[in-house]
Design goal:
CATH superfamily of the domain at 4-126: Methylthiotransferase, N-terminal domain
Largest sheet: 6 strands, parallel
Structural class: alpha/beta
Radius of gyration: 22 Å
Distance between the termini: 55 Å
Strand content: 15-25%
Number of helices: 13
Oligomer: single chain
CATH class of the domain at 4-126: Alpha Beta
CATH architecture of the domain at 4-126: 3-Layer(aba) Sandwich
Strand order of the largest sheet: 2-1-3-4-5-6
Helix content: 25-40%
Length: 432
């Protein structure tokens, strides 16, 4: 009988929370979790569909698993599986394909883990997905931080995005269950809880919204802090900003997608705000919380993005008081409006623009880190030993490393920042 399972996650923090929950289902049934690099009886790949590398990555990891164990039972699940189930089923060695919602029903759908001649496909139509599949970090993880899924699906119609097709309509966790599960994570010893969702700012339960949930969370007793994974600019309200400024439990860190600093491109993307709105929001946050770290998602090479449009984006980001960028190169996704648009940007040009913004991101991060010199930050240290250095993050997402000590693992310590080394800060622990 199979008794070992290895799990691998592609994509976002939401996927990590779901993989952990699925891993816990195996633990509860007596299975042992092993690293994906080790030989296992069962390999599970939780997929993403954001870029055109999804197919390539999926095949790559299936081959890796079969090299480790040619007789392994291979399960591919998640967003890419939802959209391209037949393609995945035809990959040599794949035994089961599970859609976005079906993955939580694995043990009721899969009778046994014996290889068969053909892959089985379990994919519910997106329009039939109405229930919410709870997910959060479990004993299947060894992380200091817990990922906690509060919302799923998306009602937005961005012209480049396949996520609504893969995840279905927006739906949220019950308010009281969210609070109960959050308390359970705190009681389990997690010191940082990262709130995740496809469009987390769209959380709604009755007359309660995301702000009401955050307000409840920060009142829960315990030594912990809350980080919001990513939030749309039109959903980051004044109330949430005010709460972050007044509560030590809500991290001074927002990751806010922009996608383009060109009004023309932003309109083609069908985003729900203007460049001027984004500018006002960022400056409002920095005026209210000067030490706040602000991360930005941006896409380069969108159809119709001329040199002047990219320059608008570059200059806009250069002048904004932001801390770092996540730069994505546009990739054509089937069944989206963008794939039919004119003005295709050559791939070499997309790569060049990506490099320019990536370099800008490095400068922005170094500038932000340099502003932390001689300041005392409260660091939550992680477990990994990086060549005798232990690292962790501050509330405002400053990565910090000091000489390794086992006693610091999963604990807070006040560190006076003294210098920047290899993209992280270093300093000494101080008593306050």
């Amino acid at each position: 009988m199979p008794d070992t399972v290895a799990l691998y996650t592609l994509g976002c923090k939401l996927n990590f929370s779901e993989t952990s929950t699925i891993g816990n289902q195996f633990i509860e049934r007596g299975f042992r979790i092993v690293d994906f690099k080790e030989k296992a009886d069962i390999y599970i790949l939780n997929t993403c569909t954001v870029t055109d590398n999804a197919d390539k990555e999926c095949r790559q990891y299936v081959r890796k698993a079969l090299r480790l164990n040619p007789d392994a039972f291979i399960i591919v699940m998640g967003c890419y599986a939802q959209l391209r189930s037949v393609e995945i089923a035809n990959i040599l060695g794949v035994d089961v394909v599970l859609g976005s919602n079906d993955k939580f029903k694995l043990f009721s759908l899969v009778e046994d883990f014996k290889k068969k001649d053909h892959a089985c496909i379990f994919v519910s139509p997106t329009e039939d997905i109405n229930d919410f599949g709870p997910a959060h970090s479990t004993d299947a993880d060894s992380r200091t931080r817990a990922f906690f899924k509060l919302q799923d699906g998306c009602d937005y119609k961005c012209s480049y995005c396949t996520i609504p097709m893969a995840r279905g309509r927006s739906r949220s966790m019950e308010f009281d269950k969210a609070i109960a599960d959050f308390k359970q994570l705190v009681d389990s010893g997690y010191k940082e809880i990262v709130l995740t969702g496809v469009n987390i700012g769209d959380y709604t339960c009755g007359n309660k919204d995301f702000y009401h949930l955050l307000k409840e969370f920060v009142q829960i007793p315990g030594e912990f802090r809350i980080r919001i994974s990513s939030i749309e600019p039109n959903l980051l309200t004044d109330d949430i900003i005010e709460l972050a400024s007044n509560s030590d439990k809500l991290c001074k860190h927002f990751h806010i997608p922009l996608q383009s600093g060109s009004p023309k491109i932003l309109k083609l993307m069908q985003r729900r705000y203007k460049v001027s709105d984004y500018d006002s929001l960022i400056n409002k946050i920095k005026n209210k919380i000067p030490e706040c770290c602000i991360g930005v998602d941006v896409i380069v090479g969108f159809p119709g993005e001329e040199d002047s449009d990219f320059v608008d984006t570059y200059n806009f980001l250069r002048d904004l008081p932001i801390s770092y960028l996540h730069v994505f190169t546009y990739s054509e996704r089937p069944n989206t409006k963008a794939i039919e648009m004119e003005g295709i940007v050559e791939k070499y040009e997309r790569r060049k623009r990506n490099n320019l913004l990536t370099n800008l991101s490095h400068r922005k991060r170094n500038l932000f880190y340099s502003e932390m010199n001689n300041k005392v930050l409260n660091i939550l240290f992680e477990a990994e030993n990086h060549n005798k250095i232990i690292k962790g993050f501050s509330s405002n997402y400053v990565r910090t490393g000091i000489p390794f000590s086992e006693s610091l693992v999963n604990s807070f310590a006040s560190v006076k920042i003294e210098s920047i080394i290899d993209n992280y800060c270093t300093g000494n622990i101080v008593d306050i």
